[in-house]
Design goal:
608 residues; alpha+beta; 8-stranded mixed sheet; 23 strands; globular; disordered N terminus; binds adenosine-5'-diphosphate
C-alpha cells in the first residue's frame, strides 16, 4: 500500500482502518496477506546474508504484545503485517506510519513517531525480532530513497475548511455540508478520529430514551446545574446553557441521522446527579468516528489526512484560508465562507501543559492522542484570539499505571459496582466523585496509586471482561489486574493489607444493607460484594482533558481579548474553553463536541 498523503476517505477504507486500530483485525496493510502467502509458496532465495521468506517477531508496545510478520523478497523488505497488538487506536496509527517508512526506505531502524514512543519501540522491536530470523544484519539492507509523495495541488478551495477530523470537526463538516456548503477537512495525522476515537464515546443527554424507559427523571436544567457545579461555576453560563439545551438533540442526530448505534444501557459518570450517559456500540469512540466519517463521505466532504494546518490567513480582517503543510509542501486551503478550528486539546504538548500548569509535568502519564498539541489555540492566538481557563487540566483517575492508557475495564466503577482502596486496604474517596477530586485523592495515597476492588457478581453485571476482553487479558498478563478466590489472595498480589481490606469490604457491605454509605456517602444504588472470585486492579491518574482553550461565543465565533469576533473563524470541541470550567464531567465532552460542532458547521455554512 503506497503512502496516503491526501485521502478522500471511503467508508470501506475507514472501516478497515478502524478495525485495525481497534486491534480486532489481525493484519495491517491489505497487501500483507498476498505478499506473505506468495513468499511462503516460493522457495526461499538468498540475497546477501538475508534469506527471503516470511518471519514472525514480537515486541512490547504501550498496550502489551505486538506480533508482526515480515516478508523479505529479493533481500528487501517486501511487507510487514501486524498480526496482533493491543495498542489503542491513536498509537496503532504510529505502527502504520512506521511500517510505511520501513518499506519505503528498506530500513528497520527508523525514527519513532513523536508522542508514541512505547508503541514505536515495541513495533520496531517486533520487526527486528522477525528480521533477525532471516539470518541477515541491518547492514545487509540496502537503504532506499523514500518514494516521492503523491503530487498535491498548491491550493484547494471550498466554502468551509475544517481543521481537525475528530468528533467536533466531523460533526461540523457534516452540518456545513447538510447546509449546502462544499467542505474540506484537513487532518494532521494519517487517520481521522483524534481523542474522540480513543475515548469510550459516552455522551451525556438529559431526558434521553433510556432514562424514559427506566423512569429516571431528568431535564436540561438539571444537566445545566450539574455542569456548572462540576466545574466550580467557572464555566460561561451562556455556553453551558447551549450545551445543556442541545445535548439530547445532538444524541438524536447521531442516532437517527448519522446512524450511530447506542447500547441499551447507560453509565453513571462521576459528578452527575442522575444516570444520563448514553454508550455507543462497544463503549468505544470508534463507533462514533466510523459513522461520522461515513456520513461526511456520503455528503461529499473531502478529508485530507497527513495535512497539518500551520497558519490562519486573514484577508481584510477576515479569516479566509488555512496554510497547511504536507510532506514539506505548502498548501493553501481557501475557505470562502469560513474556517472552523476543531483541533482538540493540548494534553500531548508537554511544554504548553507546563507553561499553563506546572503540576502537569512529564511525570504525569497521558491518555491523549499524539495529535492533541494545541495547534488550533496557537494559530488563533497569533491572530489575537483570547484563551480562557488554560490552567485547568484534567487527569482521569483510574488509568494504566505503566502507560497512562484509559482502562475501560474500570467502567465497572461507573456502574456503581466497585470501590477504590489504597495500599493500606482503606477507602479514601467517594468512588463516583468528580475526576479531579478522585485524582487528587489518589495522588495523596501511598505510591500515588489506587486499587479498584470488585466481585464476580459485579463482573457479570457489568460484563467489562467481555466488552473489553483484550484489555482485560492484557492487564491480567501484566499483573495489573488480579482475579483470586479469596480477598486475602487478591490483596497479597499487590501487597495490600488484606485484613484491613476485608474490614473495609465488611463495612461497605453493611452500608449497602443499610442503604447509606456512612463514610463517603456514595451516590447511586449501593450493591454489596458477595461472590468470589474477587478482582483488584491497580490504577493511577493520567492527563485526559484540557478544559481551557479559545474563547468563543454561543455561535462558536472565536473572540479576541476585547470580546470582538474574529471574522470568518469558528471553533468547536476541546480546542475551546469556558464550557466545563475547572473540571469536565465524564461524558460531557462528546455532548460538547457534537453540540458545538454542529453549531460551527451551521454558522460557517450560512456566512456570507
Ligand atoms: P475533539 O474532541 O474536540 O473533536 P479530537 O482530539 O477528537 O478533538 O480531534 C482533534 C483532531 O484535530 C485530531 O484528529 C488531531 O489530530 C487534529 N489536529 C490537531 N492539530 C491539527 C492541525 N494542526 N492540523 C490538522 N489537524 C489537526
Amino acid at each position: 500500500m503506497k503512502k496516503q498523503v491526501c485521502v478522500l476517505f471511503s467508508a470501506v477504507m475507514v472501516a478497515a482502518l478502524l478495525t485495525a486500530c481497534d486491534g480486532s483485525q489481525k493484519e495491517t496493510g491489505e497487501a500483507a496477506g498476498n505478499a506473505a502467502s506468495e513468499a511462503g509458496t516460493e522457495a526461499p532465495e538468498a540475497a546477501g546474508k538475508i534469506t527471503d521468506g516470511t518471519y514472525e517477531g514480537e515486541g512490547t508496545g504501550k498496550g502489551g504484545l505486538i506480533k508482526v510478520s515480515l516478508t523479505i523478497s529479493n533481500g528487501e523488505l517486501a511487507d510487514i503485517a501486524v498480526l496482533e497488538h493491543e495498542e489503542t487506536p491513536g498509537f496503532a496509527d504510529a505502527m502504520d506510519e512506521l511500517r510505511q517508512v520501513m518499506l519505503d526506505t528498506n530500513q528497520i531502524t527508523v525514527d519513532g513517531v513523536s508522542g508514541a514512543t512505547l508503541s514505536s519501540n515495541g513495533f520496531m522491536e517486533a520487526v527486528a525480532d522477525a528480521f533477525a530470523k532471516s539470518g541477515g544484519t541491518e547492514a545487509d539492507l540496502a537503504a532506499k530513497e523514500a518514494a516521492p509523495a503523491e503530487e498535491r495541488a498548491d491550493s484547494y478551495e471550498a466554502d468551509v475548511i475544517v481543521v481537525g477530523a475528530g468528533g467536533a470537526g466531523l460533526s461540523a463538516a457534516i452540518t456545513a455540508a447538510e447546509n449546502g456548503a462544499k467542505v474540506i477537512v484537513i487532518e494532521k495525522m494519517n487517520n481521522v478520529g483524534g481523542n474522540t476515537l480513543i475515548s469510550g464515546g459516552e455522551m451525556a443527554a438529559p431526558g434521553n430514551w433510556l432514562q424514559k424507559e427506566q423512569g429516571i427523571e431528568d431535564d436540561t436544567e438539571r444537566f445545566y446545574n450539574d455542569i456548572l457545579a462540576g466545574g466550580d461555576h467557572e464555566a460561561d453560563p451562556e455556553l453551558v446553557r447551549v450545551l445543556a439545551d442541545n445535548a439530547l438533540d445532538a444524541a438524536l442526530w447521531l442516532r437517527d441521522d448519522v446512524n450511530v448505534t447506542f447500547e441499551d444501557y447507560m453509565l453513571f459518570f462521576g459528578g452527575h446527579s442522575v444516570e444520563r450517559s448514553l454508550v455507543p456500540l462497544n463503549a468505544s469512540g470508534v463507533e462514533l468516528i466510523e459513522k461520522l466519517t461515513a456520513k461526511a463521505e456520503a455528503l461529499g466532504v473531502e478529508i485530507h489526512t497527513n495535512t497539518p494546518a500551520v497558519e490562519l490567513i486573514q484577508t481584510d480582517g477576515r479569516v479566509t484560508a488555512v496554510k497547511a503543510e504536507s510532506d514539506g509542501k505548502e498548501i493553501i486551503y481557501q475557505g470562502n465562507r469560513g474556517v472552523i478550528l476543531a483541533t482538540g486539546g493540548f494534553g500531548s504538548n508537554l511544554e504548553m501543559r507546563i507553561a499553563n500548569n506546572p503540576d502537569m509535568d512529564e511525570k504525569i502519564l497521558s491518555t491523549n492522542s499524539v495529535g492533541s498539541t494545541g495547534d488550533g489555540i496557537i494559530m488563533a492566538e497569533a491572530l489575537g484570539a483570547a484563551t480562557v481557563d488554560m490552567q485547568y487540566i484534567q487527569t482521569y483517575p483510574t488509568c494504566d499505571p505503566e502507560t497512562g492508557t484509559l482502562l475501560y475495564v474500570g467502567d465497572v466503577r461507573l456502574e456503581g459496582r466497585a470501590i477504590l482502596v489504597n495500599l493500606e486496604g482503606r477507602r479514601f474517596i467517594e468512588e463516583l466523585e468528580r475526576r479531579d477530586v478522585i485524582s487528587m485523592a489518589v495522588t495523596e495515597q501511598t505510591g500515588g496509586v489506587s486499587y479498584m476492588f470488585w466481585d464476580e457478581a459485579s463482573m457479570e453485571a457489568s460484563g467489562v471482561n467481555v466488552k473489553h476482553e483484550k484489555e482485560y487479558n492484557n492487564l491480567i498478563e501484566r499483573g495489573l489486574l488480579v482475579k483470586a478466590d479469596t480477598v486475602e489472595e487478591a490483596a497479597a498480589h499487590f501487597g495490600i493489607d488484606a485484613a484491613q481490606l476485608q474490614k473495609t469490604i465488611d463495612n461497605y457491605n453493611q452500608y449497602c444493607a443499610d442503604g447509606k454509605d456512612l463514610e463517603f456517602n456514595k451516590r447511586g444504588e449501593l450493591i454489596a460484594f458477595t461472590d468470589s472470585p474477587y478482582y483488584i486492579m491497580k490504577t493511577t491518574p493520567a492527563i485526559h482533558h484540557t478544559m481551557g482553550g479559545l474563547k468563543i461565543n454561543t455561535k462558536t465565533q472565536v473572540l479576541t481579548k476585547e470580546n470582538e469576533v474574529i471574522s470568518g473563524l469558528y471553533a468547536a470541541g476541546e480546542v475551546t474553553g469556558d464550557i466545563h470550567g475547572t473540571n469536565r464531567l465524564g461524558s460531557d465532552a462528546i455532548a460538547d463536541i457534537v453540540v458545538f460542532g454542529r453549531i460551527a458547521g451551521e454558522q460557517a455554512a450560512a456566512a456570507e
